[in-house]
Write a structure and sequence with these properties.
- The protein is 62% helix and 0% strand.
- The chain has eleven helices and no strands.
Length: 229
């Protein structure tokens, strides 16, 4: 009996379909493609006064500012002089800007915290745009006695860790006070008194210092330096 012919086609011995055959893969549905979003209309330009107020409030949130400082910040952001003046005038009226109060607070804080003398404080207030008369009034609250006491305190604090010969320490401490704005006479006397109370060697050196003569000489040099600037 002739052998059975092998069955072909889709019977039991049919080859399985190949994986990934395009004919057997489900066809993607053809849906409606999403349309691109329509362009949003441009936002209307903001009022310049509103922008100016926001700039000022951000500046004031960091620390108090003088009128000149705020005017400078507005100018850097392109705010016109007219709008800047209007906004700052309004802030003056309601007390948000008060250069006199700023100057008093600045003098008190910088003298107490950094030990700065009146001359250094006057320079800082001038750089911040405080009017000369306003600055003078604020500096008037720092009298000569308070300034001398602060100078002495600064010197005594530095002497605790000072190393070296008395003459080197003397020059270093007088220079430190000069950088903080103390007049030569105040600086020299503060250092001399502090050295006299430190040790026998320092007291002997301090005894040889003619504070008045040295202060006069230092004062002349200081005036010459300022005149040449």
């Amino acid at each position: 009996m002739a052998g059975r012919r092998a069955r072909t086609g889709r019977g039991w011995d049919a080859s399985p379909p190949r994986t990934g055959d395009a004919s057997d893969s489900p066809r993607p549905r053809r849906g409606r493609q999403a349309e691109p979003p329509a362009d949003k209309p441009p936002a209307p330009p903001r009022d310049e006064s509103e922008v100016a107020r926001e700039i000022c409030l951000r500046q004031l949130a960091v620390r108090p500012r003088t009128r000149a400082e705020l005017a400078g910040a507005l100018a850097k952001r392109g705010i016109s002089e007219q709008v800047s003046a209007e906004v700052l005038d309004r802030y003056d009226e309601v007390g948000i800007i008060d250069d006199a109060a700023f100057a008093r607070a600045w003098v008190s804080s910088r003298h107490t915290g950094r030990g700065l003398a009146r001359r250094a404080l006057a320079n800082e207030l001038r750089r911040k745009g405080v009017d000369g008369e306003v600055a003078t009034e604020a500096l008037g609250e720092l009298d000569e006695e308070t300034e001398a006491d602060t100078a002495r305190t600064l010197v005594e604090r530095k002497l605790r860790t000072a190393r070296g010969e008395p003459d080197a320490i003397f020059r270093r401490l007088v220079g430190m006070l000069a950088r903080k704005g103390y007049p030569p006479g105040v600086a020299i006397r503060a250092v001399k008194d502090a050295l006299a109370a430190q040790s026998a060697e320092a007291a002997e050196f301090a005894e040889q210092i003619d504070a008045d003569a040295l202060a006069d000489a230092e004062g002349e040099t200081d005036r010459d330096n300022r005149a040449s600037d």
